[in-house]
Write a structure and sequence with these properties.
Blueprint (H helix, E strand, L loop, with lengths): L1 H18 L4 H10 L1 H14 L3 H18 L1 E2 L5 E2 L4 E2 L5 E3 L4 E2 L4 E2 L4 E3 L7 E2 L4 E2 L4 E3 L3 E2 L4 E2 L4 E2 L7 E4 L4 E5 L19
Parallel strand pairs: 1-4, 2-5, 3-6, 4-7, 5-8, 6-9, 7-10, 8-11, 9-12, 10-13, 12-14
Antiparallel strand pairs: 14-15
Helix pairs in contact: 1-3, 2-3, 3-4
C-alpha cells in the first residue's frame, strides 16, 4: 500500500509540472496527449513496485512505450518528484543516472556512461534539446544545460553551460532557485 501511495504521489508531481494542478481532468488530458507524461506514469508504477510479476508487467508495458515514444529510461533510474519530459523522441538515460526533483529533459537527450556510473543530476535542472551528459559528472541544483551541449565535467549550482565541450556561460547566485525553464515546480514540502 505504501508503494502505491508513493507511485501516486510521484505521478501527481509529474502532472503538476505539466498542468499546474493535479485534477483528474488534467490527468486524462495529459495522459492522452502528452507522450512524456504517459511514459512517466508507467515508469513511476513500475519503478515503485517490488512484486516481481507486477514489475514484469510494467516492464513489458514500458518496452512498448519506448518503441512508441522514443524514450528509454530504465526502471532502475532514480528520478525525484516533478519530472518533466517536454517532447518525446530519442531520449536515452542510463539506469545508473539519478535526477533530483523538478528536472526538465528535452528531446534528443542522452545521459549515459560506458564505464558504469552515469551522471548525478540535482534538483531544478533543465537539460536542453540534443544535449549529452557523459560519464559520472555531477550537475548541481538549478543548472541549465544548453541545447546541443556535451557535458563532460561537473556543473556548478545555478550555472548555465553550453557548447562542445560544455563551458559555463553564466552563473547565478546559489539562492536564485530554478531557472526560467522550470515551470510549475512541485513543492518539495508536499
Amino acid at each position: 500500500m505504501i508503494v502505491m501511495k508513493r507511485s501516486i504521489d510521484l505521478i501527481k508531481s509529474d502532472l503538476y509540472r505539466h498542468a499546474g494542478n493535479t485534477r483528474f481532468s488534467a490527468f486524462l488530458r495529459h495522459y492522452v496527449l502528452t507522450a512524456g507524461f504517459n511514459y512517466m506514469v508507467w515508469h513511476r508504477l513500475g519503478s515503485q513496485t517490488s512484486f516481481k510479476p507486477l514489475r514484469a508487467a510494467f516492464f513489458f508495458i514500458l518496452q512498448r512505450k519506448q518503441l512508441r515514444f522514443g524514450i528509454q529510461i530504465p526502471l532502475r533510474t532514480k528520478i525525484g518528484f516533478g519530472f518533466y519530459i517536454g517532447h518525446s523522441g530519442n531520449i536515452v538515460v542510463s539506469s545508473t543516472a539519478s535526477f533530483g526533483s523538478n528536472c526538465n529533459i528535452s528531446q534528443g537527450v542522452t545521459v549515459g556512461s560506458n564505464l558504469g556510473k552515469a551522471a548525478t543530476i540535482g534538483s531544478g535542472v533543465y537539460i536542453g534539446p540534443n544535449a549529452c551528459i557523459i560519464e559520472a559528472v555531477s550537475i548541481a541544483d538549478n543548472a541549465t544545460i544548453g541545447a546541443g551541449s556535451i557535458v563532460t565535467k561537473d556543473v556548478l549550482e545555478g550555472a548555465t553551460v553550453a557548447g562542445v565541450p560544455a563551458k559555463t556561460i553564466q552563473s547565478r547566485s546559489n539562492d536564485s532557485g530554478p531557472g526560467r525553464f522550470i515551470q510549475n515546480p512541485w513543492p518539495t514540502n508536499k
